[in-house]
Amino acid sequence: MKVYFGASISLDRSLLPNYQEIVANLKKLGHQVLSEYVVDPSIKPGVGLTPRDLFARETKTIDQADVMVAEVTAPSWGTAFLIEYALNHGKPVLALYYKEAAMPLPMMIEGHPELYVAHYTKGNIRTVLKKNLDYFASMNHRKGKLIVIDGTDGSGKGTQTELLLKYLDEHKKKNKYIDFPRYYTSFHGQMVGRYLKGEFGGLNSASPYLTSLFYAMDR
Amino acid sequence: MKVYFGASISLDRSLLPNYQEIVANLKKLGHQVLSEYVVDPSIKPGVGLTPRDLFARETKTIDQADVMVAEVTAPSWGTAFLIEYALNHGKPVLALYYKEAAMPLPMMIEGHPELYVAHYTKGNIRTVLKKNLDYFASMNHRKGKLIVIDGTDGSGKGTQTELLLKYLDEHKKKNKYIDFPRYYTSFHGQMVGRYLKGEFGGLNSASPYLTSLFYAMDR
Predict the structure, then answer these.
(1) CATH code of residue A98
(2) Most buried pick, A69, A149, B121, B165, via CB within 10 A?
(3) DSSP conformation class of A142
(4) Which residues of A touch B113 (CB under 8 A)?
């Protein structure tokens, strides 16, 4: 997966060796780290960039990531803002807290309703990353696929759909089936039904500009 | 206005006298501070609350606030998360940075595209608060009012609208006038026009279930 790694850059660099270890392990696990500059020991935050441009660069990088991994032991305004940005854009965020640190885990991180918080040591960081990123990858798969079967009357849509549903059930793939128009369950689908029965002036006299709206609004 | 005040509680309390000064000044300026416990010297964060409940209590308090004022000189995960929460819920946020602090203003605060950042000293905090909160109050007013003039044909909608617009202009009140159907500027408004000209089967033969959709979608 593509990972945005975030950690304190300007306030507190004492845990830089941990950050480097995390990034190295992410790469060993086959992930791509889009923000490797965060662990560059010589980094000076945003050299040559205005603060606004720096903020924009980070959010654009997150746009390209699948997930965010944040080291949250040392405080960082930027990391906190970017965590929220990632969550608002549908990316899961793993917050890593170093168990051997002097600072306690802040309650507002522990209590954040959308963060995945994990405590790590130098010995188990790889396992912690693998477990959580595997879980994130499985969430991605859980997004599901949308399969559309369309065609003219009598072309076999129903037959193909039945075969597909049977296949999915036999292979224990969860599925949900919807067909349109929903003559019984949606207001606009009911209108399609009444139109097809000729209530609104017959198939040839009612304007398609009007009747097509019923179909569109049933979606 | 109702103000949510946020600042570092567990990580760094060295600026507590500043926080107290800010809250005292907000109150002197006539505002209500919903989170005064933040400046209680004996506060222990979330005593008796789970971390999740603490987080929920703070976000619910922000729901009731008009604006957020955050002291951002000392780092705070909680304050950062709550700043984003407030912004996501349409509350303007003033981020206050203490000019005489040893820590520099982080670039990611300065570069945050939605934050109002102000530098303050002990001498000017009241002026800084007044200026920014007055501005926030004027933003609230700038939300504007929606005036709807409706009635049957020939009832005088046009006459009343002209009188109103003339009044607003004479009193230098900014205004924007829209009338429906928008026969020329919207796709569905054009459809209303074609319907009224009889293109879709005449006023008495086309079903109102169909033709009313054009009006609805022009809004």
Answers:
(1) 3.40.50.450
(2) A69
(3) T
(4) 52, 55-56
